[in-house]
Design goal:
about 120 residues, alpha/beta, Rossmann fold, 5-stranded mixed beta sheet, globular
Amino acid sequence: MVCVFARKTSEPLTSLVKQIDSKIGENRKLKSFVVLIPKKGENPTDDLKKVATTAGITHVPLTIGESPDGPPDYEVAPNADVTVLMWSGHKVKANHAFKGELTEENIKAIVADVPKILGN
C-alpha cells in the first residue's frame, strides 16, 4: 500500500500520483490512495478533480481528509507538506516526509521504494 498525505495539490504531487497510478497498472497487487489534508475551511474538491483529469488517474482514489492533522493512527508528519507511507501487511516499509514542494529527486526516491512493498 502506498498512502500519500498532502496539504495541497501541486504539479509535483500530480506527477507522483501519476507515477504511482502507472505502477499499479503494471502490478495490480499494488494499492494506493491519496488524502488531501486541507486547512480548516478549505474545500479542495475542484483541485483534486483537476489532478485526476490532468494526470489521467484511473487506479488511485483521491480523497479529502476531515482533520487538518490527518487520520490519528497514521502519524502524518505535522510539519510536512507531503507524507508518503508504504506498508505491506501490517509493517511500514518506507516513510517519507517533505517540507515544501516535492522535487524530482524526492519523487524518484519514493517510486524507487515501491518494490519494498511488493517483495521485489
